[in-house]
Design brief:
Blueprint: E1 2-6, E2 15-19, E3 29-39, H1 41-48, E4 66-74, E5 86-90, E6 102-106, E7 110-112, H2 119-123, H3 126-139, E8 147-151, H4 156-168, E9 171-176, H5 181-187, E10 191-194, E11 207-212, E12 222-230, H6 248-261, H7 263-272, E13 275-278, H8 285-296, E14 304-309, H9 313-321, E15 328-332
Parallel strand pairs: 8-9, 8-11, 9-10, 11-12, 12-13, 14-15
Antiparallel strand pairs: 1-2, 3-4, 3-6, 3-15, 4-5, 5-7
Helix pairs in contact: 3-4
Length: about 325
């Protein structure tokens, strides 16, 4: 099969198109003939080596986090899926492998595609959709009447989060450019702050809950007893420890480094009387089924920025790295 490989950590030059053996399913795996692959900022971070300490890899390695396609083989212990099923999924964080014509992935990490979606749109859901769902539903526990701030609302995660929070009954404020404001209001945002011309200066304690998608320091607007959850700043201790298998000595070093690196924001949170944590999303077929049900019911919309043929991965990555994408960038396989 054709597959993109990383030959090392670095910039665009380390990504090459090669040929690899067709994957075989383990007992609990399904093999999927990939039809579309979603690209994300985390793909760029993985290529550059941002996770090299937590997840050392042997090169060449096939990158790629999310996909849609058709099941072509199943392991002996697979019970919920059959050959021919159309599915979408998020790969295991340590295995990756979606940027290929076929990928082997655990059954528990995939779900049948929503009825109303094509392959391109389905590939745009798993990573961003699951991240937003786990933030709004679990980490922040957003409820009706909550005052919620989402920074970076025009990102793919942000657009999912705005819709999920609005559906929960929260009053949603988000930051974005003026050009993105009409779309975000249409998705459910009550207020859009133009980050280029407006500051988030509505007074201390204005928001009971904050979802940070930008990774920049925020003014003290979190209410006492509130929560601030980030997916863009340095991970907090304990947040990524179980994402990757590692020996005890590596886990101790990782936790020590994260504890030191996050002293500032954790100290500000203690002084402000709110909780602060980094959310590392957990790949989940159950969450994909929940997202799929919302999509089928018309309660959740998916925004595509652009599509590229599989052979044009370098251009697709450049679009992601430009930070100008308004929606998901997707690679399409024949």
């Amino acid at each position: 099969m054709r597959a993109y490989e990383l030959t090392g950590f670095g910039g665009p030059e380390v990504l090459r198109l090669g040929v690899r053996s067709t994957p075989l399913p383990g007992p609990r795996d399904v093999v999927v003939d990939v039809r579309a692959v979603g690209l994300n900022p985390v793909d760029v971070l993985q290529r550059s080596g941002s996770f090299r300490f937590a997840n050392p890899v042997r090169f060449p390695v096939v990158p790629g986090n999310e996909f849609s396609g058709v099941v072509s083989a199943i392991g002996a212990e697979v019970t919920s899926l059959s050959v021919g099923d159309t599915v979408f999924g998020r790969t295991d964080k340590a295995r990756l492998g979606a940027l290929a014509e076929q990928v082997a992935v655990e059954e528990r990490l995939v779900a049948r595609m929503p009825r109303g979606l094509d392959f391109v749109t389905a590939a745009a859901v798993p990573l961003a959709g699951t991240t937003a769902l786990q933030a709004i539903r679990d980490a922040l526990e957003v409820r009706a009447g909550d005052r919620l701030l989402i920074t970076g609302g025009s990102s793919t995660v942000g657009m999912f989060a705005v819709q999920l929070a609005a559906r929960a009954g929260a009053r949603v404020t988000t930051t974005a450019s003026a050009g993105s404001a009409p779309l975000l209001r249409d998705l459910g945002a009550d207020e859009v702050i133009d980050y280029r011309t407006q500051a988030i200066d509505t007074g201390p304690g204005s928001f009971g809950k904050v979802f940070d998608l930008v990774g920049e320091p925020l003014p003290d607007v979190v209410a006492r007893g509130g929560r601030l959850v980030t997916v863009s700043a340095t991970p907090t201790p304990g947040s990524v420890r179980h994402d990757y298998a590692m020996p005890p000595w590596r886990a101790v070093l990782l936790e020590t480094a994260l504890r030191l690196a996050t002293v500032g924001p954790r100290r500000r949170a203690r002084r402000g009387g709110y909780t602060y944590r980094f959310l590392s999303m957990r790949p989940s077929g159950d969450d994909l089924r929940e997202l799929g049900s919302l999509i089928d019911d018309g309660a959740l919309r998916v925004k595509i920025d652009s599509t590229y043929d599989f052979a044009r991965a370098a251009e697709a990555f450049a679009r992601v790295e430009s930070r100008r994408a308004k929606g998901k960038v997707v690679l399409v396989l024949p």
